[in-house]
Design brief:
Elements lengths: L1 H20 L36 E4 L5 E4 L6 E4 L1 H9 L6 E4 L13 E2 L8 H6 L4 E4 L5 H8 L5 E3 L5 H14 L3 H22 L9 E5 L4 E3 L4 H8 L3 E2 L7 E3 L2 H7 L3 E6 L2 E2 L4 E2 H7 L7 H4 L3 E5 H5 L5 H12 L6
Parallel strand pairs: 3-4, 3-6, 4-5, 6-7, 8-10, 8-12, 12-15
Antiparallel strand pairs: 1-2, 9-11, 13-14
Helix pairs in contact: 5-6, 6-12
Length: about 325
Amino acid sequence: MKETKTMHKILLSIVASFMLLFVAACASDVVEEDDSVNEDNVPSETVSDDTGETDYPLVITDATDTEVTIEEEPEKIISVSTSDTETLFALGLNDEIVGVSDFDNYPEEALDKTKVGSVVEPNIEAILEQEPDLVIVGNSIMPDSVEKIRELDIPVYQTDPKNMDETVETMTQLAVITNTQQAGEKIVNDIEEQLTAITDTVANVSEEDKKKVYIEFNPGWTVGSGEFMDELIDLAGGINIANDQEGWIEINEEKIIEADPEYILYADHLIDEETNKPLDELIKERSGWEEITAIKNDQLIPLDEDIISRNGPRIIIALQNIAEGIYPELFE
């Protein structure tokens, strides 16, 4: 329970950092095997044409439009971004990962790695002790923490994917940075194959038959347009009732009642620290919400808290779970 409450506080800190800092989500330049490479930002010699391996030193631009130079193939990597940690492990970099955030719990191997603090303000001393040659951070980190790491002459690469395409681009970039392009290509191909299968399945749902959906990923918080959770609902063939707003939103209970969603998606096994109640129970007990179609029809869909909040390799599982939840008859 204590760990859940602590995670709740961190999630609120992350949301607050989105609202206060709103770090610009600049689309990162990706080195791929086709002609879509942005040659203005990524040198053409970055990847060898003969071997498909990364040529170092590598100069690459991250999500904050910062040019990052990586002198040699990284051998000691720290990640304080839960999404990117999952990607790094999926790329086969278990031996190279020497530190992760306090909340990295997937895959199992992440539990055995040295913890270096939160995703918002990591412990700089703990990072330094591991002598990394690359640190990966996400969009929730405080800017001054990034600067402190860079002052130690450690390359910092920051990610901030806002949708499926940018998530795939980020994974491709991490594969280039770590010289694991073959593994990266397999991850991307698998995601694209599953994405096609899911979107093809819901493609024949007419506009008038699309289900209205409300998602609550943290007590009192939902998401509007411009974020990957909103896109997942759209790709699953649903309509996010909050997509007339942007970003991470503190909920307006009356507006949700008025919108009358047919399905409610919520983070499973999440306890509200103020009431000490599970999130689904909290949702059902709100005044007036008993009239919402989703609650009257008991159409509340539990989703794994980690999977729906991390835009890494498991993002396709989140999409599958949402699509199956709101259109079960199409996935029988």
